[in-house]
Specification:
The chain is mostly helical. It is built from 14 helices and three strands. It binds iron/sulfur cluster.
Length: 277
């Protein structure tokens, strides 16, 4: 269906992007390391919170080698405010395995432990403009609605993206799709009237899908307590005893969750104290 409209569709989206693009700090670099950091931060945190954290993280760890040399506790401190601290742990581990530099080629990136298919393709595309097909949540929604009239599955979205991808400047193409998803093709209330592809979109005028399955209140609050444990230890350089930690947080799950965080490698025990890293 979209084959017939491929060119006009692309040019409408790219023209819209030329005037509406968001100015984001990770779009001003071609350094695969900096782009990788931004991609990991953006996985579960909103753009507005990532932007300042990204810049201060890169001031602290400007290269993959500096990140690899750092202690995990310092990396977790620099991650403050972003949540989902396991991402910092994985970033740090992957930096240590990367051997001092990060390639900008998708295949070489994919071969590194800790860098998955999406991240490898996105980093390669944004670092070099290479025509790599990939899809995040926004891209799945935008391309799915345009071509199928509904949100696409990941595999569908990657296939649609591969069919539409311009041979050059694929980085601009993906930034444009992400911006379209963030600014107009919103999950619940798409603003089709302002959309550059409204005339060719199979999903135009849809009211938006119902909110996705929410995580249970239990899972949400488990995550909250995990975050509170890491935050408390961030502020206590010499660490805290488990009892002091439980008293500070006031939640009975602290003991069990501290053990989980320890097994995951985010915490360790120094004598009777729990410390970060
Ligand atoms: S026309 Fe509406 S549904 Fe289609 S891409 Fe634009 S905002 Fe999304």
């Amino acid at each position: 269906m979209y084959n017939a409209t491929r060119r006009p569709l692309r040019s409408r989206i790219l023209r819209w992007y030329a005037r509406a693009a968001r100015d984001l700090p990770w779009r001003r670099t071609r350094d695969p390391y900096a782009i990788w950091v931004s991609e990991v931060m953006l996985q579960q945190t909103q753009v507005a919170r990532v932007a300042p954290a990204y810049e201060s993280f890169l001031r602290r760890f400007p290269t993959v080698a500096s990140l690899a040399r750092a202690r995990l506790a310092s990396v977790l401190r620099a991650w403050a405010g972003l949540g989902y601290n396991r991402r910092a742990l994985n970033l740090h581990r992957a930096a240590r395995l990367a051997g001092g530099s990060l390639p900008s080629d998708a295949q070489a990136l994919r071969a590194l432990p800790g860098i998955g298919r999406y991240t490898a393709s996105a980093v390669a595309c944004f670092a070099t403009g290479a025509p790599e097909a990939f899809a995040d949540t926004n891209i799945r929604r935008v391309l799915g609605r345009i071509a199928l009239g509904r949100v696409a599955t990941l595999d569908e979205a990657v296939a649609i993206d591969a069919a539409l991808l311009p041979p050059r400047a694929a980085d601009r193409w993906h930034h444009a799709l992400m911006d379209l998803g963030a600014m107009l093709c919103l999950s619940r209330h798409p603003r089709c009237g302002e959309c550059p592809v409204r005339e060719v979109c199979a999903g135009r005028g849809t009211a938006g899908e119902p909110a996705g399955r929410r995580q249970s209140a239990f899972a949400t609050s488990d995550r909250k307590v995990r975050g509170e444990i890491v935050r408390a230890l961030r502020g206590a350089r010499g660490g805290l005893s488990e009892r002091a930690l439980a008293a500070a947080i006031g939640d009975p799950r602290v003991h069990a969750l501290a053990r989980t965080l320890e097994q995951e490698g985010l915490l360790s025990r120094r004598g009777s104290r729990l410390v970060l890293g």
